[in-house]
Automatic annotation (TrEMBL):
Protein's organism: Runella rosea
Name of this protein: Hint domain-containing protein
Protein's UniProt keywords contain Membrane: no
Signal peptide: 1-17
Signal listed as a keyword: yes
Length: 309
């Protein structure tokens, strides 16, 4: 079941719909990843060893990040095709930042389990190679869509009352302070992957069931009032989306062991953290709150959340 879910997620987060696709073997995965691609910042179309790397112009093929630390990071995104039939075999993300370049091959939905396992391993290795790699890739994945699988946000408007946080949830502001979500005002500037103003606040009254996540930051010496016994707690309705290592996931889709992102209280950087415990139906509340933002991301209890659309 876990592999089937990962496969579905990948289908939802593949950026390019391709009419001719084929599976890729593990050996070919390694071969494609090892191909030298020079001057990716200049070239949107590259031929190399029988493979074609095609990057769209504009925002669909280039993601740019600052992460509030003044360091420029970019991801160049290429569709990969092979052979005379131009069979699509996946996508290549080239991360560039701090003088480093890291290539990540993203399989298509036809790839076998061993290729997906290697992809997940490469994601985690990349996280150790460059500060900001994992969170930038995760955000990129959260923005991708495909015509060959349903958009993961397509059902989110069906129940507008079900994407919310309880009143006492703290939200991080761009100036470094924090406020309960119930006191946030339109126009306030929030921190997140990108800073952005609150454009709308939605308040719902009724009876709302909450899920509690207990989250453990990876290898960090945290100094934060949010941490109890090394864990951060976050409560929300089951369908609010968070940013995970593999992109966008609703809380109901999360599993123990999944990685999310939190802001380190000492360095201010976004670091990976692991979901240690998921507690369903922990309590009911009468008021819940949802934010719409310019940037589409914000921080609740220092954990990166996404706008519902």
């Amino acid at each position: 079941m876990k592999f089937i879910f990962i496969l579905y997620l990948a289908a939802c987060t593949s950026v390019f719909a391709q009419s001719n696709m084929r599976a890729i073997t593990l050996d070919e995965y390694a071969k494609v990843k090892a191909l030298p691609l020079k001057s990716v910042e200049k070239h949107t179309y590259i031929r190399e060893k029988g493979y074609v790397f095609d990057r769209p112009e504009g925002a669909d093929g280039l993601f740019e990040f600052n992460l509030n630390d003044g360091i420029e990071r970019k991801i160049y995104l290429y569709k990969i095709s092979e052979g005379a039939a131009m069979n699509g075999i996946g996508t290549l993300a080239v991360f560039s930042g701090q003088g480093k370049q890291i290539k990540l091959y993203i399989p298509n939905q036809l790839a076998p389990k061993e290729v997906w396992n290697q992809y997940m391993s490469d994601l985690k290795v990349g996280n150790t190679m460059a500060n900001g790699f994992a969170v930038c890739v995760a955000y990129m994945l959260s923005q991708l869509k495909t015509e060959s699988a349903p958009d993961s946000t397509s059902t989110e408007e069906k129940d507008p009352n079900d994407f919310c946080f309880p009143a006492e949830t703290f939200v991080n502001l761009a100036d470094g302070s924090e406020k309960p979500i119930s006191t946030i005002l339109e126009g306030e500037m929030l921190s997140g992957i990108f800073q952005g103003k609150v454009t709308r606040i939605e308040t719902h009254v009724g009876s709302f069931q909450l899920t509690r996540l207990l989250i453990k930051p990876h290898g960090q010496a945290w100094v934060s009032a949010k941490v109890r016994d090394g864990l951060i707690a976050l409560e929300a309705t089951a369908t609010h989306p968070l940013l995970t290592l593999t992109g966008r996931k609703k809380i109901s889709q999360l599993r123990v062991g999944d990685w999310v992102f939190v802001r380190d209280a000492v360095s201010g950087r976004f670091v990976t953290a692991e979901i240690s415990v998921i507690q369903h139906a922990v309590r009911n509340v009468t008021h819940v709150y949802n934010l719409r933002t310019e940037s589409g991301t914000y921080e609740t209890e220092s954990i990166i959340a996404l706008d519902k659309n």
